[in-house]
Amino acid sequence: MSETTDLAVLEIKPEQAPALYVANGLDAYLDQIRELAAEVPDVTTKKGRDRIGSLARMVGSSKKAIEEPGRAYLKQLKEAVKPAEDELRRFTRECDTIRDQILAPRAAWDVDQERIKAGEDARIAAQKLAAQIESDHEIALLLNDKFDRDAAEAKAEAERQRIAHEEEIKRQAVEQARIEAEQKAQQEREAAARREADLKAAKEKAEADAKAAQERAEREAKEAQERTARLAQEAREQAEREKQAAIAEEQRKAKAAEDARLAEEKRIANEAVARAANEAHRKKIGTEIVTALLGHTSLTREQAIEVLVALKDSKIPHTRITY
Fold first, then answer.
1. What pLDDT, on the 0 to 100 scale, is given for residue 165?
2. Is residue 261 included in any domain, yes or no?
3. Are 220 and 63 in contact (CB under 8 A)?
4. Hey, which of 83, 94, 113, 250 has its CA 20 to 30 A from 49?
5. 267 by DSSP, 3-state: which?
6. What does DSSP assign to residue 122?
7. Which of the pair, 31 or 100, is modelled with greater confidence?
8. Has residue 262 been placed in a domain?
9. Does residue 93 form part of some domain?
């Protein structure tokens, strides 16, 4: 990759999130980042080292540009579940209030029976009623301050109804109302249990999905980080190998230059030796010629040397000195 190639600025729009933050949804961005990371600048130059830092910063910026919208999308998914939870909580509270109103006649009847049967029986019946109301709310897992206030108001209303209608309530009618109320309360408890189970299952599924998405995102982020680190390590190793190869090449060139220099020095020395030997040989031949001229002619030494010079310079036709 050319050192001038940079990663385009990454931007995730909100409407892209559902299609991107799924299994393998970010592969296209990872491919861009991997292509960027494939560049191997020259670590032996300042420009190359600066480029390595720039590439690393671009990878970090790309990671942030993808991760932050993903985190916001996960938060949005979690917040989307809250309205359903709040509405279900409000609905169950209202159902509890309606149920308590339905149970009010039974409470009034119980109070009437307490008056008839005596104070102790009335206390026991009231405790059972309170225990029944508390049990109903424990099943729904929605106990709160409002329930306590509603329960107190229901008891107060039951007491007022008992005072206002104690002479009018007939035993059989009240008994029938009690039976129907208990049946309806049982149905409500079963429905509340089903709703609670459905709500719990939906909440658990939403939490599991969100957790899985987060774990997947974290796992993919970790894998991307590990791959980036591995590629960086491979790039460093490649750069080191190239550096060592360059050093070896420089050493080879230096050795070749040194060998050439030594060879040239040897050639010059050999030529000097050859010239010296040739000069000595030529002097020997010249000496022998001068000696022969002195021995076989009446020439003086000076004249014999003049003849040698004339022969050496090829000034005398048909003659040549063979060295």
1. 60
2. yes
3. no
4. 250
5. helix
6. H
7. 31
8. yes
9. no
Cα separation, 313 vs 323, in Å, equals 13
How far apart are the C-alpha atoms of 154 and 107, rounded to whole Å?
Answer: 9
Of the candidates 151, 129, 139, the one whose C-alpha atom is nearest the C-alpha of residue 92 is 139
Q: Which two tokens mark 60?
A: 């970090």
Q: Widest CA span of the chain, in angstroms?
A: 188
- For 203-229, give one letter per residue: b (16+ CB within 10 A) or e: eeebeeeeeebeeebeebeeebeeebe
User: What is the CB neighbour count within 10 angstroms for residue 83?
Assistant: 9
SS3 annotation, 239-253: HHHHHHHHHHHHHHH
Q: How many residues does the chain have?
A: 323
Query: Tokens 């599924």 map to which residue?
Result: 205
**Structural domain count, the chain:** 1
Of 2-11, 63-72, 127-136, 166-175, least confident by mean pLDDT is 2-11
Which helix (H) or strand (E) segment holds residue 53: the answer is helix 46-117
Residue in 117, 107, 200 with CA at minimum distance from that of residue 157: 107
Question: Are 1 and 39 in contact, with CB atoms under 8 Å apart?
Answer: yes
Alpha carbon 313 to its chain centroid, in Å, reads 92
Instruction: Point out the least confidently predicted range of 61-65, 140-144, 146-150, 314-318.
Output: 140-144
The two tokens of residue 116 are: 């008839």
Task: Provide the token pair at 65.
Answer: 């540009």
Residue type, 177: A
Report how far residue 109's alpha carbon sits from residue 177's, in angstroms, rounded to the nearest whole number: 9
Q: How far apart are CA 84 and CA 91, in angstroms?
A: 10
> By the 8 A CB rule, do 78 and 70 touch?
no
Domain interval for residue 289 = 253-312
307 inside domain: yes
